[in-house]
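To whoever is on call:

I kicked off a structure prediction for a single chain this morning and the downstream step that reads the tokens threw a length-mismatch warning. I double-checked the sequence; it's 515 residues and nothing unusual in it as far as I can see. Pasting both halves so you can look.
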Amino acid sequence: FGTALLYGDGMITPAISVLSAVEGVEVAAPSVHNWVVPIAAVILIALFAIQRHGTEVVGRFFGPVMLVWFVVLAVLGLAEIGVEPSVLRALDPTRAVTFFVDNGGRGFLVLGSVFLVVTGGEALYADMGHFGRRPIQLGWFVIVLPALVLNYLGQGALLLSDPTAIENPFFLLAPDWAEWPLTVLATLAAVIASQALITGAFSLTVQAINLDYLPRMQAVQTSSAHRGQIYVPTINWFLLVACLGLVFAFGSSASLAAAYGVAVTLTMVITTLLVASIARPRWGWSRTMTAIVLVPLLIVDIAFATANLFKIPAGGWFPLLIGLGGFAIFTTWRTGRSIIGRRVVRAGLTVDDFVDSLAEHPPTRHPGTGVYLHSRPGLVPPALLTNLRHNDSLHETIVFVSVTTDDRPHVNPAQRDHVTHHDLGFHELEIRYGFMDRTDLAADLEGLLIENISFDEQHTTFFLGRERIEITARPGMVPWREHLFAFLSRNAGDPTTHFGLPPERSVDIGTHVKL
């Protein structure tokens, strides 16, 4: 559910960021109010259109813009703080306590709006996956955080001196001559801010596919230097359609704020709970250490989430709907694959029994290596049985390859393969990848040095089983989930592309499976 909420966040963030930036045009020229939504739509289309070029290209172009953006934020804030320095008292945490004591329930509800000043931090995980921990730490503590604090203090100072500026305190920080340049800069910054969520959606999709929570989709590697930089066309265009729908449906950033707050706060609560679930078994933390570090974070997260739940009728229902829909897809695919796996195992033939049967009734063998991909180690792939039944012929060397995804991000290539040899030229080979590793099976196989096995590209053929799902009345899932699973299975991506196999040396063999 948390992962599905992040997809909702990936839809809402570009929409609200671009809308809020373009709305600055209304400050400089109120007469163009009716053009705000169309302009935002054009910018979103351009943003998603350039995703295929990769994060590196986008970052190289926009990196200097972001540096200018944060400098401008800091300068605008400092100028207004100089006019009303009393705003610096806001840094005293006791004033926040006094505010809640004086305002009670109303003060608590204010958290739902105040929370929007810290959104965006939840996207750091995506940037960290692309650029590493150190650059993110330096960028955040040296540039981003100081600039944001100064700018928000500056907006507070402006409101103390001119309460009517509440209409749009950020853009009114700037002098009249700077409103148009600031609008352009804010729009560029909004586009860049959206980039982290978009690339995060790509990364989550590939990891979900590797962990068998989603069917295969085409994923394009956009960088030879950074493994995490990928592009998933299906997700890209899905997010674009969703963003455009949100922009035209809600019409303003203020209307979208409710949906945004619910999505981000619930994501943060779930993330903290997930950290708690791995702190002891993975990091070796004690119960006391886990409680000391995470309970305060969880209290803050729950407080923000509870304050935002009051916004569900005003648009907060949208991320919940996306979360439930995504959760249904993830669990349906996972459950369906598990059911098929159990039924294949029950009806399967072990490799040892199959080899023994061939010794009594040997088929024709021809030169070369036949590689059969199969997800159930120890069993003969149905594709081989179908091939043998129709052609009564097999390669001299047969390799059953099972590709397994570990629950760790990366697997050392030197520890990736495990082979089991059988009689009559049959071999079982397990290849392990991390959930963030790029699968390039053909290249990895050619690099292996295994006795009696050659993966020479001139004499190796890859066989893949295509499962044809037949919905039946057998116990399994409820009918609507079975139909959903069958739909997802029919529309799964090409396995040759997913596994990095050469299409000219790959053969698909269909097998019927009753669900």
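Update from on-call: the warning came from a stale cache, not from the record. Cleared it. Sanity check on the structure: The chain has a mean pLDDT of 81.
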